[in-house]
Amino acid sequence: MTFPFTLPQQPEHAAPLPSKADLVVIGGGVIGTCTALYAARAGARVVLLEKGRIAAEQSSRNWGWIRVQGRDMAEIPVALESQRLWADLDAECQGRLGLKTVGISYLATSEPEMAGYEAWANQANALGAGARLLSRTEVDQMHGAQASGWVGALHTPSDMKAEPWVAVPELARLARESGVTIVEQCAVRGLDLSAGRVSGVVTEQGRIACDSAVLAGGAWSGLFLRRHGIDIPQLSVRSTVLATGPLPQRVSGAGVDGSIAFRPRADGGYTLAPAAFAELMIGPDAIRHLPRYLKLALSGEFEVKLRSPAPKGYPDAFGTARKWADDQETPFERMRILSPKPNHARAAQLPKRFAELFPEMGEIAVQATWAGMIDVLPDVVPVVDRADQIPGLTICTGMCGHGFGAGPGFGRITADLALGRDPGIDMSRFRVQRFFDGSTLVPGPNL
């Protein structure tokens, strides 16, 4: 895959469908790819199935940040492990992932913001985050932005970036070299259950016998699970991103304030995005799950705009089927790649704001604008857990925009869970049953 999302005409991975496997992973984004990779390296016979193309949805459309900064406290051990794994994987791929330690700054425009950053840092640094607070003078020395209004920042020097549309396909090649059978353009229609537990998966190309399956379907996971009686309150929101053409490499690190996020890219340009801005397209699930999101919505911490009904074929469109038989075409086959149109009006503001901050950049040419659908949950925390309702099924979804950076860590953990091994990290915060057992949902930080 080349930037921006130019796919070759023929799938890169078109292996014959095996009749059996130890583990079938559903979804070829960063989470599914890393799960398959680490499960294969643990000795399992693994099949990775993708309804469209590897990393063609959100895993190639994100900001490319690999951060510990701003994570929920339960995610920090995963984020730290992910950074170590990213470095190992990049070495294996001979530097092709575009990995670089750039440091990430959360730039504050008020003292209350700084107080919130300080509270997070006090907890997170006890877990090894390595964040520090910057004064106004230190921010000016580091970023030198004009007309910023920044009074300080939370900064984590060890945070990284990689190039998503390059990195995840490279990881898939690494997984294939490790023994994973990868089949693109092969949608999974459902789980085959025997006495209530997984005995196989049914795909559009046929059945694969297996005792264990992982669902890492991103924005499509909730739809797939509901067919099997697991109704998690997952929605998806649209996020718009812009790439500039080559510019002076004046800004070496990544940063975000209340209006714009930015990071340098390996090709000499910058990736820009509206900060904390998302759009929810109305559909049946959005209406049904609204009560679970009220606490988050009323907090005022996220700028989420309601939009007209989800377009035809989207996971939560009014016309999208919620039930189907194993021998019927599914929504996953009708929309191979979920590729939303960007918010061009919001994107047009980004070069202007970037030029205000860094006027020495000169004229800012726009190379590409795109959007992706981010899978979210009402407490801004993923589900990474074995499904009690269906023994043999492990779920890893609802990454809430954290999936790319944490992909290797959550992939390693999900592989261990699926293979019946101790993941070595407390996963109670990520359990699926929190939505069904009356637990009070505690939102993660909006950082």
N- and C-termini, Cα separation: 31 Å
Hey, roughly how much beta strand do the residues contain? Answer: 15-25%
Number of helices: 11
Q: CATH topology, anyone?
A: FAD/NAD(P)-binding domain
Number of domains: 1
- CATH superfamily label: FAD/NAD(P)-binding domain
Largest sheet, order of strands side by side?
6-7-5-15-16-17-14-20
- SSE-based structural type: alpha/beta
CATH architectural group: 3-Layer(bba) Sandwich
Percent helix: 25-40%
Low-confidence stretches: none
The coarse overall form would be globular
Integer-rounded radius of gyration: 21 Å
The main sheet comes to:
8 strands, mixed
Number of strands: 22
Average pLDDT level: 95
Write the layout of secondary structure elements.
Elements: E1 23-26, H1 30-41, E2 46-49, E3 65-66, H2 76-92, E4 100-101, E5 104-108, H3 111-124, E6 132-135, H4 136-143, E7 152-156, E8 160-161, H5 164-177, E9 181-183, E10 188-194, E11 197-203, E12 206-209, E13 213-215, H6 221-227, E14 235-244, E15 254-256, E16 260-264, E17 270-274, E18 277-281, H7 284-288, H8 290-298, E19 303-307, H9 331-334, H10 344-357, E20 366-376, E21 383-386, E22 393-397, H11 403-418
Parallel strand pairs: 1-2, 1-13, 2-9, 5-15, 13-22, 18-19
Antiparallel strand pairs: 3-8, 4-8, 5-7, 6-7, 10-11, 11-12, 14-17, 14-20, 15-16, 16-17, 21-22
Helix pairs in contact: 1-5, 1-11, 2-11
